[in-house]
Amino acid sequence: MEGPVLPERARQAGKLNHTMQSFGVVVVGAGNAGLCAALAARESCAGVLVLEAAPEAERGGNSRFTAGAMRVAYRGVEDLKALMPDLSEAEIARTDFGTYTEADFLDDLERITESRSDPDLAELLVKRSFDTLRWMKGKGVRFAPMYGRQAFKVGERMRFWGGLVVEASGGGPGLVDSLIGAAQRDGIEIWYGARAIRLIADDQGVHGVAVRRSGKSIEVPARAVVLASGGFEANAEWRTRYLGPGWDLAKVRGSRFNTGTGIAMALEIGASPYGNWSGCHAVGWDRNAPEFGDLSVGDGFQKHSYPFGIMVNAFGKRFVDEGADFRNYTYAKYGRVILAQPQQFAWQIFDSKVTHLLRDEYRIRQATKVRADTPEDLASKLDDVDAAAFLREVATYNAAVRKDIAFDPTALDGRCTEGLAINKSNWANTIDTPPFEAFAVTCGITFTFGGLRIDTDAAVQSIDGEPIPGLFAAGELVGGLFYFNYPGGSGLTSGAVFGRIAGTSAAAARNAA
Ligand SMILES: Cc1cc2nc3c(=O)[nH]c(=O)nc-3n(C[C@H](O)[C@H](O)[C@H](O)COP(=O)(O)OP(=O)(O)OC[C@H]3O[C@@H](n4cnc5c(N)ncnc54)[C@H](O)[C@@H]3O)c2cc1C
Q1: What are 458-471's pLDDT values in tens digits?
Q2: Which are the contacts of 199, defined by CB distance < 8 A and separation ≥ 6?
Q3: What is the pTM of this model?
Q4: Model confidence pLDDT, tens digit, residues 20-32
Q5: How far away, in angstroms, is 386 Cα from ligand 1 center?
Q6: Ligand 1, CB within 6 Å, residue ranges
Q7: Whose CA is nearest to atom 14 of ligand 1?
């Protein structure tokens, strides 16, 4: 097979100036995707190295910031027991887990991405999801049912909703600790504070990685390289360049290290860009959260219970259908809508009829929150909002609620408003019962959707449509799966599925070399 055409600079870089110990497979990035790739590569290849730009204290990338929610296809409780053997008979008896078939998962991906998701990648993600989680379990990752965030009590039983049932025990930190523990047991080397800066490549493909470590630039030869270094969400300049004006003003929910270097390194040697480069996952996030994620708060700055209330902007106006769908299917696109509001903020408003339904993140000490006993008092406490317009908006909204339809938080209940410029489609409750609570949010970017083109072996494709020998990719920096929006819990599953494939392919390429 003929290799891709490579730029002159990269061709010249093929000469190793500082030859070090040689590795079979080098993985760039120690998040969920990179660690799954390293573990899979290690199954058939000695000499696996993981390069991680962050210091050890900040290890784990965006994966560590997550709740550990993982979307997986399952046929029923027997499948779930295979992933969660600790599931007790009492839990099974009191829970309606339902099913989430491969067809359901594919339908969700297709609907949420407006049929743009690459069919081959989407099929792999869905069809390998269950088997990959079982493989992770075999590596020491423990899973648990997501009672706290994805189930409601209906009568005496807990009922799951939105196709999302499984989380890694200990959330993102637990997941990362388990994967790193497995990597250490398998003798995989991890270098922290080691930023990959360039691929060493020539006409025959990729032969290693140039790395900046402890203030020195070194070159690490390898038979195959897996890029798993995340998207470009932490790079304000790239955000503005690709997502558009205003995105420099978004807060970053997770790692400050995902600056797009891996993508840039691959493009530089002729890799093909792919997917929704102007799109990203972005949510409602505390207005006063810091510039980047804070590991001590994790994902606690998110505010995802808006389907049970309303959101208003600086004009005191609603601007989006808060109840268009289950939270899982709208939260990832509403950050963009909030960013587009004047001064890039909104207030989420709830009354006491629903405050017991608010997720845990509403109870953190750092929440930007106000409480009031009358609508007028509430209006006066909403910073930067036109109070009179807000009171008119609430009155108009309350009058439009279809009170004859029963409220049911576990289903698309159809309890809507009628006659408003922007109607609420489900879970429309009047806002009239004190105390009232309001939370200020802005846009928090989670990860970017555009990235590199891979094939079904996770081999990075060149702009000429050929696999670049020795180069594989997985996780956030892969383009083509997510467009406009994203079904919650798919990011970790995608990193695991494609990480495992990339690691296996890289080891095979190394063994064939
Ligand atoms: C707050 C928050 C909550 C989330 N919740 C969920 C959830 O519950 N479920 C879900 O499925 N998804 C969730 N996501 C999305 C999820 O985090 C990502 O989809 C997933 O973790 C991406 O995994 P990854 O391995 O590709 O990237 P990461 O986990 O970000 O790993 C990339 C790693 O590469 C390193 N790196 C970057 N550049 C270099 C370089 N040049 N050299 C060496 N290393 C480099 C980074 O430091 C980082 O450690 C959430 C994200 C955030 C921010």
Answers
A1: 999 999 999 999 99
A2: 10, 13, 206, 208, 209, 210, 225, 265, 266, 268, 269, 471
A3: 0.93
A4: 678 999 999 999 9
A5: 38
A6: 28-34, 51-54, 61-63, 65-70, 195-196, 228-230, 253-255, 257-258, 261-262, 293, 299, 446-447, 475-476, 489-492, 495
A7: 66
